[in-house]
From TrEMBL:
Pfam family, one: BAT
Keywords: Transcription, Transcription regulation
PANTHER family: DIMETHYL SULFOXIDE REDUCTASE TRANSCRIPTIONAL ACTIVATOR (PTHR34236)
Domain HTH bat-type: 154-205
Organism expressing this protein natively: Halomarina rubra
Designated name of the protein: Helix-turn-helix domain-containing protein
Bacterioopsin transcriptional activator GAF and HTH associated domain ranges (all copies): 9-135
InterPro entries per the UniProt record, alphabetical: BAT_GAF/HTH-assoc, HTH_bacterioopsin
Length: 217
């Protein structure tokens, strides 16, 4: 059964240790192109700091071979990054035969979600990483039940929209991304995204909180 694991990895064992030390208030998020292999995870979004300081920190980080700023939104910056070979090596060990769903770095660690084909693949990847000196902490493990594709009553599209909004900071205060930009990244209109988020929220509340409290909606 497919398994999704939430992992925590110290930055010193993976990437951006120097940048995170220099910029403790900055968050780095690898965009959806995360994948082991040549050019894996080339897009890096940074929030919480000035472009000058972030660029300076990236230039001095041992895990970054080169970078280019692609977009400057005053409080959020998108970079194209060429990582050192060590980054891809660790990414391969962490993912194994799975797929990296998201990767976010802040403080002194990375939070990574990986979809594995089964629990055995997770155990193998964890063992391989540990054997190579990469300290990996397994925070969460969930299984994707093929008989229940729409858990809590939400559709696949609503689930993907809610997860993307959460991971990209749409629900943060202040927001790190606007509705139109998030919709463009997903590839749908902002009206469609707004509808998916609204209906997804309504269904989640109805199926969880309202049901527990006996509230009729």
């Amino acid at each position: 059964m497919a398994t999704v694991a939430g992992l925590t990895i110290p930055a010193r064992s993976f990437a951006l240790a120097g940048a995170l030390t220099a910029l403790p208030e900055t968050t780095f998020v690898c965009e959806s192109t995360v994948a082991p292999g040549e050019g894996g995870a080339p897009l890096l979004r940074a929030t919480g700091g000035s472009r000058e300081l972030i660029s300076e920190a990236l230039a001095g980080d041992d895990s970054v071979a080169s970078f280019t700023c692609l977009a400057d939104h005053s409080t959020e910056f998108l970079y194209h990054v060429k990582w050192t070979p060590e980054f891809d090596l660790v990414l391969r060990m962490l993912s194994g035969t799975g797929t990296v769903l998201s990767a976010r770095a802040s403080g002194a660690s990375w939070k990574i979600r990986v979809l594995y084909p089964g629990r055995g693949a997770l155990s193998s990847a964890h063992e391989t990483s540990t054997d190579h000196g990469v300290a990996v902490e397994i925070d969460t493990v969930s299984h994707l039940d093929p008989e229940q594709p729409q858990r809590f009553g939400i559709t696949t599209e609503q689930r993907e929209a809610l997860l993307a909004a959460c991971e990209r900071g749409y629900f943060d205060i202040p927001r790190r991304i606007g509705l139109r930009e998030l919709a463009a990244d997903i590839g749908i209109s902002h009206q469609a995204l707004s509808e998916r988020l609204r209906r997804g929220h309504d269904t989640l509340i109805t199926e969880t909180l309202a049901e527990r409290e006996g509230v009729t909606l």
